[in-house]
């Protein structure tokens, strides 16, 4: 098999020579299979997911949930509802920064971080403490150990550095942070395309990666989070993704996830016509309550 021939962009010439592309750390080129799958969706199955009861909507929803299951198994998450689709690592980190932290908190990062895993924390108002690196580009683990204090709410670290290629000792980082009762977020943007990732074995609390760095389309990524943490997180963005029966009532992250994922395609059909589906979620512990289960 000629791997190069699977990537249409590599068939072109630049300055009279075959294209040599060495920027996959920024974004990878897309194989024909991915391009064809995207085209096939828009040609046959384009519809809003978890909304409609027509054939296209149910096919699109099924494909979304299949993709969630694929992502779950790819990183060995315990459950499919621990996979949250986002636009990429930047949005994943912003989600955690705005839903998990408060301005009173401190966060510890490393000097190896991409801006995606640095600027959101800075803009969130928390105090950011930075563990340095040595002359070889390796994390100064002793500095990290000293920086984790009683006000540390989270440790965030790159699994693999985008600039130096340094592979951080993430298992040790997680073990250290957990010994102090501190959760850990790992930026896996550079690791997920190259390393076998097992979030249960790592025992990290959050893990984020982007599709476009691993032969997938732009504009989609994954935030993995342990279910208990996701359920406890506060809403960050709101709008049209919630059923209209809730209007402007605030939905917890956990409630929105349960509504989206516990209904089967068959029961979703009944949600549009009666209260049998919505009634199951009124006891989910969310602060939002239905005045009426019917529109």
Topology diagram in text:
Elements: E1 13-14, E2 17-18, H1 32-45, H2 55-75, E3 83-86, H3 89-99, E4 106-110, H4 119-123, E5 127-131, H5 141-147, E6 152-158, H6 170-179, E7 184-187, H7 199-202, E8 206-210, E9 221-225, H8 227-232, H9 253-262, H10 265-271
How would you describe what is shown here?
There is one protein chain. It contains 10 helices and 9 strands. The chain is globular and about 55 Å long. Mean pLDDT is 85; it is low at 242-295. The protein is α/β, with parallel strands linked by helices. It has helices at 32-45, 55-75, 89-99, 119-123, 141-147, 170-179, 199-202, 227-232, 253-262, 265-271; strands at 13-14, 17-18, 83-86, 106-110, 127-131, 152-158, 184-187, 206-210, 221-225. β7, α7 and β8 (206-210) form a beta-alpha-beta unit. It folds into 2 domains: 64-232, Type I PLP-dependent aspartate aminotransferase-like (Major domain) (Aspartate Aminotransferase, domain 2), CATH 3.40.640.10; 244-281, no CATH class. 32% of the residues lie in helices and 13% in strands. The longest helix has 21 residues, at 55-75.
How do the SSEs run, as a string of H and E? EEHHEHEHEHEHEHEEHHH
**Poorly predicted spans:** 242-295
Strand count: 9
Major beta sheet, strand line-up: 3-9-8-7-6-4-5
What's the gist of this structure?
The chain is of the alpha/beta class and 295 residues long. It is built from ten helices and nine strands.
State the main characteristics.
single chain, 295 residues, alpha/beta, Aspartate Aminotransferase, domain 2, 2 domains, 7-stranded mixed beta sheet, two-stranded antiparallel ribbon, 10 helices, 9 strands, 32% helix, globular, disordered C terminus
